[in-house]
Amino acid sequence: MRKLGIAALGAVAALTLAGCSAGGSAEETTADSGTITVWVVGTDTPDTARDYLKDTFESENDGWTLDIVEKTWADVSDTYAAALQSNDSPDVVEVGNTQTASFADQGLFLPLDDVDLPDDFLGGLQDSATYDGTLYAAPYYAGGRIVFYSDQILGDTVLPETLDEYVATGEARHTDTVSGIYAPGRDWYNALPYVWAHGGFIAEQEGDEWKAGFSSEGGIEGLTQLQQVYTNASNAAKDGDETDPQVPFCAGEVVFLSAPAWVQWSINAPEDAENPGCASTYGADLNAFPLPGLEAGETAPIFAGGSNMGVATKSKSPEMAKKALQIITSDGYQTLLAEGGLTPGVESAASSLPDTPVAKAQATALANSKVTPTTPKWAEVEGAQIIQEALVKIANGGDVAAIAAELDGQIEDILNG
Amino acid sequence: MTATLPSATATSGSTKADRPGRRGGRRFPWAPWLLLTPSVVLLAVMVGYPTIKMIVTSFTDEAIRNKMLGTAPNFVGFDNYLEIFTQSDFPAVLARSIALMVILTALITAGGMLLALLMRRLSKGWRTAVSISLLLAWAMPPLAATVVFGWMFDTKYGVANYILNVLTRSNDWTDHQWLYNPFSFFMVLILIVTWQGIPFAAFTFYAGLGQVPDEVLEASQLDGAGGFQRFRFIVMPYLSSVVTAVLVLETIWNLRIFTQVYALQQRGGLVSETNVLPTYIFRQGMGEFGVTAAIGVIMLILLMALSYFNVRRTLKEEAL
């Protein structure tokens, strides 16, 4: 038995050493040919842009090919982390803007200060991609939530000019079957504007400590107004999430639908599509406006969703990966994104946005937008789902002040932990 | 050789001729160990190395960044364990996991036994029908099953709310949120896991019941033993090793249940009030290997302690 134990230990030691040596041998090679793999998330990136990237890269770099792989948002935490630290890592990857800091903090992205990139990136996205004063990812595109409505359902109702009017209209139009404002409890991105508009905040850094602000005066006011929406204006599931909002909208059960701009494609899908929309009914006269703020003429601060593109530390050919990133941030590519209705990460390409009410509403809304706290620990707050939980409790009629105070405690525990 | 072992040659000359290499009982038995080598190596690689690595990691602050930058993690002693037990909701999660495991194991074992006894009594046609339906439940991927049950208990469109509305002739159950209340969340969860867990227990017990000799049962019946007495004093002793095996497996499976809890949490439900150990580990920060390894070590110790008595009893019985 003893000998066996020694043999087992020897095997373990050999394996450990082998593991170490394999890990240390990732050296940079500047070969004449190879493949660059780019991961994009979801179907947002239009096909025109994908083709442009592949063709441009391959014609500029003889012998090189570029593959685009489509991942889902569910992959972007753990699947990404596993792939990016493996020896089979992709070269350029799209990540959510709120997750970028944590990837940079773990050393999964190369710093980009030696790459020649445009200098007119969208401010909010650039902040989210900057960690410790260094840019670790290139802003890709931004998306904001806007309020959709169909004239057939809206009827004679006047469009609201302030946030209070918006809530009041939602309550007035609410019936047993129709939501004045569609507000599922777990949709936390849509809850943030209420908090921000009233002067509340998620968390702010005071010296070395993070201080959470849902229980600040403005935070409580915002959450109280949100509770009013949940109870008096919405029929959405109080513990439901924001997926597939086109289902109730197409059933004619929603007056105001606050959702990401791309939801227009879900609503405008044909009735017999795999994911059916209502192109011929409520989609036909789909319109949108930016969520109004406290005063007439201003908008409420919305959450700036979006993506950044980073270069993997473990990329076999980082120089070529950076060249691909330069194409992605070039005017030619970003213009194609803009034409697809995405707010481009490079501001100079924004002029190519289509002239539709949805695109205009989104551009106006994004002009007043905020992001989640830029700290690597933020990903853990999202992973723990504590904000969604607090909102579900509020939607179920809980005591706003107590719930907000508890939430702030949890957020501070994680951010300062 | 003969000079060193004079007594052996003297007492057993014939043995020496048959097995010239034998030197008393002291020679290392190469053959059996050689035969064991592949499995030992496999175990060392697949089980031994990860386990040791996990235990070592649990005493460090290792993170992805150590691997990426090639730096060694810091040794932090028992800090990870202290943090788990004092600064987090881990004790509550642990208690919840164990309670859930006990309830699930009891329900699955009892339900499986009842179904196995029923199958012994059924005619051939009915038995086939029951077997097939059990197999279907067992073969269904847990994720698919959870998604289907999730729809049944959906807040807006669920069939459970609809049926309850029809039965009570009211609208009380419209928009009832089954997953919001942790108690009903766990009721739904227990329903899913038990539904999928019973087939395995039932089939195993059914196979075990076939081993109980009919003569003994008949003899006890002639002696006047009732149905329950026969089960308790004749069937159970014959089945005890099978029951132990099922209990050990169910204990382990039910303590590391992940898919069903995670999928239900994604549909609704308050994560912090419904986390069990595996989902709790999963929801730790990205790449915080030290803390997650420490939780893993605690789970390992727990499972070994729970299985120890059962396994020891089985081994003892087999030795008899």
UniProtKB/TrEMBL annotation, chain A:
GO terms for molecular function: maltose binding. PROSITE patterns: PROKAR_LIPOPROTEIN. GO terms for cellular component: ATP-binding cassette (ABC) transporter complex, substrate-binding subunit-containing. Keywords: Signal, Transport. GO terms for biological process: maltodextrin transmembrane transport; maltose transport. InterPro entries: SBP. Pfam families: SBP_bac_8 (PF13416). Residues 1-26 form the signal peptide. Gene3D superfamilies: Periplasmic binding protein-like II. Belongs to the bacterial solute-binding protein 1 family. This is Extracellular solute-binding protein.
UniProtKB/TrEMBL annotation, chain B:
InterPro entries: MetI-like, MetI-like_sf, UgpAE/MalFG_permease. Residues 1-24 are annotated as: Disordered. Residues 1-15 have a biased composition (Polar residues). One of its GO terms (cellular component) is plasma membrane. Its main location: membrane. Residues 94-310 form the ABC transmembrane type-1 domain. This is ABC transporter permease subunit. It is found in: Cell membrane. SUPFAM superfamilies: MetI-like. The chain crosses the membrane at residues 30-52, 98-118, 130-153, 183-209, 230-249, 289-311. GO terms for biological process: transmembrane transport. CDD domains: TM_PBP2. It is a multi-pass membrane protein. It holds the Pfam family BPD_transp_1. Belongs to the binding-protein-dependent transport system permease family. Keywords: Cell membrane, Membrane, Transmembrane, Transmembrane helix, Transport. PANTHER family: BLL4140 PROTEIN, DIACETYLCHITOBIOSE UPTAKE SYSTEM PERMEASE PROTEIN DASB.
